[in-house]
Amino acid sequence: MQAPAKGKLITILSIDGGGIRGIIPGIILGFLESELQKLDGEDARIADYSDVITGTSMGGLIATMLAAPDKKNRPLYGGKDIKAFYLDHSPKILPQPRCPSIIADPMRTITAMAGSKLIKEKLGDTILHQTLTVVIITTFDIKELQPTIFSSFQVKKNPSLDALVSDTCIGTSAAPTYLPTHYFRTKNPDGSVREFNLIDGGVVANNPAPMAVSEVTKEISDANLDFDDPDMKPTDYTRLLVLSMGTGSSKSEKKYSAKKASNWGVLGWLTNDIHLSTVFQSLKCEIYLRIQKIVKVGEASLKSPVSRVNLDSGVFEPLNQGTNEEALERLAETLSKEKQLCRGRSSPL
């Protein structure tokens, strides 16, 4: 790892889980990429401007699609391709049950098998260390009862994590009650085998941005870098530029008190519309929103004013910084300038 050049930002793109609502960040990424292409040419891709791309659940699939190489060692997918991918393939990847059930549904198994086959076909034999930029995917191993983070940073120290990116995608998207646990194995250089029994990464972190920031700062600290600026510390977060993309929320989401939820039991938890992670995301979208309606939501979000959550009230409040579309245009300019500034220099990661 090389020390960051002066003025060089470390850019992190983070994509939340959200089932079929992943089309919303797809629309936003498509717009951002189009702005980058206006500045730097038609070959510009999101991965060219991202030092780290992280994702959970279907966000993990988007992350690896953006970072996986094609035969020319360029990004397999651009930001503009995500929307089309969802429109064409979401029925093959995402289950569409009528309601959560503890009874096995053969149609879900068929859907899961078809989805896994499609993902493997699209991502091919790419393994984690071959991605064009650092990739971090969150999952949870139900046999070990602990999170498993597939991070490009870790593969040299722990080669058992150097898995097929298609396996990490299927694992991080395996929402309990909707898709089966994903099992696969990897082999270490010494011949030993590691098993993985993975479920949805939303169990760990539906928003993987904090996990990515932690990985980046740990990597910098472990490298004991000698920064150009003597006053710069390895954990100086002013050098991190994070674009964290959510997938919205359903207006039907309800809130419950601890007293009301304490006596639910298994069936109560399965039948109440709880937003704990991405577990119920696909269901809510399939029941309440048709995919074209979700597209309209994503497109409308570009025209919405820039806002942030008031941590006291939980309400989004405008920041008088224009629309999200205008903010993305400004972000594209920043990313383009950083890329030009650091042309010919090593990435900080």
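The record above closes out task 2.4. Task 2.5 opens with a second protein, given below.
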Amino acid sequence: MQGIVLQLTRFGFLLVLWLFVWAVVRALRNDVYAATGSRPITRRPRPRKADARRARGSARFLVVTHGALANTRISLGSQPILIGRAPDSTLVLSDDYASERHARLTPRGDDWYVEDLGSTNGTYLDRSKVTTAVKVPVGTPIRIGKTVIELRP
């Protein structure tokens, strides 16, 4: 009886050890990819036809999906949208990782372009750092500090 208990204890310890190693490797991987702004190679799900039809429409709203202002919705017009901590910004962020004048969304025809305004921590469009004015597809996340926003039809 003692032999079985000893073997089960050994197996349990080995299982807990492997779970710990897996958790450490996963945390390191997330930290490395978050610091570089790149992402690991993963299989992407195939877009559904409904998503493709929705993405073709022009954006009408700017929606905050993550962060302190989650579920905030701003109607888009013909004016640029200034994003940052400055009180005169269109979208005022209370995020320590956002600059006073962090980024700007500018309309050009039916398309919207995001540009970083020399921020300290950068602006990311779907995990890619924005260095020049970049076209923003509908539904693509824009990360500014801890805040994530998207254009929606």
